[in-house]
Amino acid sequence: MHVPDGFIDAPVSLATGAVAAAAVAVSLRGARRELGGTAPADGLGGERTAPLAGLVAAFVFAVQMLNFPVAAGTSGHLLGGALAAILVGPFTGVLCISVVLLMQAVLFADGGLTALGVNITDMAVVTTLVAYGLFRLLLGVLPRRRSSVTAASFVAALVSVPAAACAFTLLYALGGTTDVPIGKVFAAMTGVHVLIGIGEAAITALTVGAVLAVRPDLVYGARGLTAPLQLRTSPLRPGTDTAPAPATPKPVRSTRRFALAGLLTALALAGVGSYYASASPDGLEKVAHDKGIDSKTEEHAAKDSPLADYQVADITDGRISGGLAGVIGVGATLLVGTGVTWVVVRRRRDRAAAAATETA
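Given the sequence above, the corresponding structure tokens read:
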């Protein structure tokens, strides 16, 4: 659903750019709490969680290269807002998806530069807010167990994709550059993106379920899921009350193996799996072509990038070229995503240290 330059006029593009900038600024503040500068209840400190957030961004980048067929002549790909929000938190999730979109636009000419605000607003902010809000709502009524987290992840991801399609339709109604009946755009966008949402939901639920199986402590959306242990007295001794067990500190588990496995998975998906992705246009591209929305598409400013269209320039073998481009993209996204979240963690730690000094 990457919107290219020319689909949305300048005033709406500027307005969404301002919305995106404000959302990123708010997310930077919110991510300080989610990432934490000291060891939180799950035993992970900020220096450990920051690389994991960068890994989530790199993983979303890799999986977005895997277009899957959804209908005749149409494909879809992961948007990732639900997955990122559930794994690392909604504010950090917005930052992760924003980094992915920035890397795609600047390095790979995927999604317009003037439309970057549109894409961040639609694919990072809307998907994350809708998905995480619905996720928390479902967890509030479902039984407190891991299967509920997976089920809520599926539903939240499913709904987030047509929600993003509706948001695009609204933006197009406000600033579309072609005269196309909005009702037809709405029907086409929501119809195809409900199908794409099923793929998004399956990927999100499988990924969240896999992480829950091996490291449930790393899933932000599952924090506090386990009820506190209760000490119960023998029925032969009536008159005594149950009481929570004394809190014991949890040992800090290393995230190195998990991070390495996640990185290798992302590299394999981008470097090898992307070769087998569907070559059909994605949902927005198909609707834009069928409805004439793409008649005003502008040439991408980064069209001469050596990685444009996810191909490395001067490498003629398509498989090697695309795979190498994917590997480079995963590495670049990991570095930038980790860098952003590491700065957030450091700023929180520095402020905490300054506050402690003032009160001493």
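The first strand starts at residue 68 and ends at 71. Try to locate this feature in the token string yourself.
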